[in-house]
Amino acid sequence: MNNRYLIPYINACIRAFAKRFKISAKVAFEYLYNFKGIDFLLEFYDIEHLQSIDDAVDDLVIYCSNNGGTLK
């Protein structure tokens, strides 16, 4: 992937996820990493970045939940 906006986008999603659940960015990253949310953002970046960050966080919640995550 050679997109200069990919890393800033993933960072923004992690921070928005952390803010929604009132957790640190580090804890949010670890949660998203463990429950495949980061993989989701990488795989579906082409689609997800066209939506709002709030929509991306909603999708992350569902995706992580499907992979064993407990935050809702």
Explain what you see.
The chain is an all-alpha fold and 72 residues long. It has one domain (6-66). It is built from 5 helices and no strands. Helix 1 crosses helix 2 and helix 1 (6-21) packs across helix 5. The chain is globular and about 30 Å long. The N and C termini lie far apart (30 Å). The mean pLDDT is 95.
What's a quick, concise take on this entry?
By secondary structure, the protein is an all-alpha fold.
Element layout with pairings:
Elements: H1 6-21, H2 25-34, H3 37-43, H4 45-48, H5 53-66
Tags for this model:
single chain; mainly alpha; 72 residues
How far the N terminus sits from the C terminus, by CA atoms, comes to 30 Å
Low-confidence stretches: none
Shape: globular
Radius of gyration computed on alpha carbons:
11 Å
Give helix and strand order, one letter per element, not per position. HHHHH
Please identify the structural class as seen in this structure.
mainly alpha
Query: How many helical elements?
Result: 5
